[in-house]
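Give me the fold.
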Amino acid sequence: MLIKQNTEINFNKLRPCNQAIAFARVSKQEQAEGASLDAQINKITEYCNNHNFNIIQEVRLKESSTRGGRKEFHNMLEFVKKQKHKTAIVVYCVDRFQRSFKESSEIKDLLEKDVIELHFWKDSLVLTKNSSASDMTRWNMGILAAQMYVDALRDNVKRSMEYNWTDGKMQGKAPTGYLNTLDSNNKKTVIIDPDMGPLVKKMFEEYATGLYSLKDMVVWARTHGLKSKFSKKTLCRAAIHAILQNPFYCGTMIIKGNYIKHIYEPLIDEDLFNIVQERLSGKTKIHTKTEYGSIDFALRGVFRCGKCGCAMTPELHTKKSGKQYIYLRCSHVNGDCDQKTINEQLVFQQIEDELVGSFNFSDKALMALKTSVREYVENENGFNRIHKQQLQTRLTNAKNRLDTAVNMLLDGVITKEVYETKKFQLDNEIAEIESELTKCSNDLNEIGNIVENIIEIAGNARNLIKSSKVDQKRAFLKLILTNSTIIDKKAWISLKKPFDLLQKSNGCTSWLGYTDSNRDIQSQSLLFYR
């Protein structure tokens, strides 16, 4: 008996989509009061009518797409997930929807599950479960362009702040004893607080006599009504110590470890301030947070010693002339090693000489590289999400144990002394876990920066190595280098896959990545066309 085999091919068809959400966003209230939101909604409504979409919800957001948790945005996504039918989210353009890659993972998941479609009117771009790589790349490039615009604005703000600092102008809130206000020209300025200012000055004078300890000054502040301008509470010992160490009161600001004379009226003179510093520590030098260990080195963790395998550690050298240089030296963790120190600039010159000429590839190769990097980053973020879940579980367990200890104390099962000991241990454990969670919370923000670095590889590697910011340099080098070593005055460069293929492909016009059905890269091949 012959069994007829089913030869029908099951294509991955999309579910029909007949309903839509009209999504419009502005960043500021002023924009919302103008025509921006209405203009977006009008274009979106016209688009939905032309495509027979029934608008089931109209979303008008007045929120930043790069700051905060975007509560209303995520409420909209939760609404979509509850729908029985697939929903098209229709937006004026990509940057109205998102300006960073933070939400990309969740959006891609909804696209893959065929829960949503994305329609960007101005960009003439529609994203579905079966969208091509070029369309997905256009989406990512739109987000990248928006993020670069935001970063450029941030750079302008930083330049403005640095300009004001150079002129001796305060940025942010003035310390206790001063008030932020506007001058006669309606410009921001800082004046002495008529209520708290004289008390702060008197506190400096009293402490300079040597008759009071910091503990005594807490009582003095409480007696005289000296309070924090921020919390409106009586100053504690740490707050008083911080005030007495702050040179702002004698005319100097500390900005990123640098001492800058400000333009505002000093509350005390420098002689009184110096006497207080001697009283506090016996030294006139004020300790700041700018210590050697906090310096950000571009080559930290990038190279290892080619002789003993230890890490090459960057260190700052200051010449007699005052000029500073950064050198790499073997950390000697495994014992003595005759490795020579090497100037950081020499290492960068060798990196530039070896890499810049090698990254000569076509637009297809660049697109394939971007795809590979995004998959790598998403994989790394997957590990991060697992780690965060584990931390959340530990945090819940620790809090439950603390609740149990409270109940045992109330029931008389344990003594107060035992409870206090256990509470101290659990509070420390909870604080450590919450601190670790905070460190993990922003990992997805790095996606945009990494993609931006990869884009700049094409024809801009020299500028990236020479003049980019330190953290971007290090991210770029760690992204492409692996098992790179230094032997005496020579840096031996080794590239990660698939960057090693790019180095070998000098002169190629195309580079193709082949993927399986799960989108995992199985192999990369280079097709050479002269």
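The radius of gyration is 30 Å.
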